[in-house]
User: Fold these one by one.
Assistant:
Number 1:
Amino acid sequence: MSNFPKDGAITRNPLVTIGIPIYNEERFLSQSLKSLLAQDYNNLKFIVSDNASTDGTERICREMLQLDGRIEYRRMECNQGAVANFRHALDLADGKYFMWASGHDLWQPNYVSECVKLLEREPEAVIAFGSSSWIDALGNPMLRTSGWTDTRGMDSIARFHSLLWGNVHPILGLIRMEALHKTRDLLNTAGTDLILLSELILQGHFVHAAETSWLRREFRGDENYQQRMARYSSREYALSRSFIDKLLPLLRLPVELVRSVLRSKISTSEKLLLLLSLTPVLPAKYLVTRNQQTRNKKT
């Protein structure tokens, strides 16, 4: 990756790269790209990483290239799996801040500018993210809601637990590039977004940009636990490749979360307290998540 300003240094208009990893997104892609291109923040670079789409995705991307020179389109020759595609978008990024974006969601025009404003003002923050709400495939509002946690004022242990019991929406927020450089590469396993966020939240705060929002599109319908794990194991996602991963897809997650704690820069006493607190919490979190997914499928 290219050089970037020292963390905490205030830059009047720092470069932001938006990485857009996609696969067969022709249904919503034009609308999503137009939403991103309409951002009122002008120092933007867009990396579209196409994971060998087989539909009209490539055609749409090349049409968009003619409309806006800030877009860089990279197409893989064969499907590498979802995590590899997310990594590819990040590897091509430049600038001080980075954001992953999907090929089906929508953003308010001030999303990037509000998040940049917060991160420039809060040097201890590593991610800024707006409010989120859900829409269906037709763009209609859904009853589903997602909350958020602003961790300013929390210590590292409280921050970590707020992440475990919250949601992973901040993974699609604006991230300080220097903080990303201190994390491990995205792991090819179920829960890789939570693992990355756990390493980021032990570096600094996640801050809520209350003056902006984005719409997350749900177009797959409700999934139960088994259906979601089957999707993660599919050729498209390729998150669970070994026999053990396919048999017990979430077995690796607690192990990697512990590794995230151990490799962090928090004090030894904080690490010990956090690991002790996780002993009963991780099994409870697993059971609660499975029960929630089962309830969602029935309603």
Number 2:
Amino acid sequence: MQVRAKAERIKARMENIAVVLVEPLYPENIGAAARACANFGVRELILVRPKNLDQEKMKAMATKAGLPVLEGMKVYEKLEEALAPFGYVVGTTARLGRQRKVFETIREAAPSIIELSLQNQIALLFGNEKWGLTNEDLYFCHRVVTIPTTEAASLNVSQAVVIILYEIFSQAAEVKLPKPRLATIQELEPMYRLLKETLEAIDYVPHDNVVLWMTTIRRFLSRLDLTAQEVRIIQGFCRNLLWHLGKRDQPHKDREQK
């Protein structure tokens, strides 16, 4: 007789969560984000192509609590490089157009994020103060969430960081068995490039909006919580299909399932 694991209510491992700001414009918001990270136990703040890194202004808004986060802050030129070690990426947006594909608020998504945080590194992605995250930025996200506001409202990026972190920090999720370690962005991106090549080879990708189509494919696969081994299996399938189509040299003997 199989005994079912008893569900436990678990809080998020905030140390496994990082805040990523894409092209932030104002150093004051960077400092305020560092302070928010410190308040909720997040140790890692990452910037991608920041426009202004005025130390005095950042430190003034970070206050004493946020200084350790600010001092350990990492800066990257490319978003894909910044996200490489993360197994799960959550994008944020206030715009809910056709290409956004947003179906949930951060409060609704928080339990799943909490469960994933037990064994995975999670990146929370925020866009800049003027236009937020682009469709190309959202391309890397496993899911995208929004913060409900009135139509007239406009949240500052550091305010958005506070709200998102609070929702994750304050909730608890019922967990029987924690999710496994997922494939990282560094492992996923070669698979997605190979998958795109394969779909184009069989003329399955619409030519009018490739980014939107591939975003749909990526979001679908993201719901499967792919592991590194499963990613290698998909890559092996694509290589063999491309070889049979005459688009690639014969692949080496499969090692994907090992």
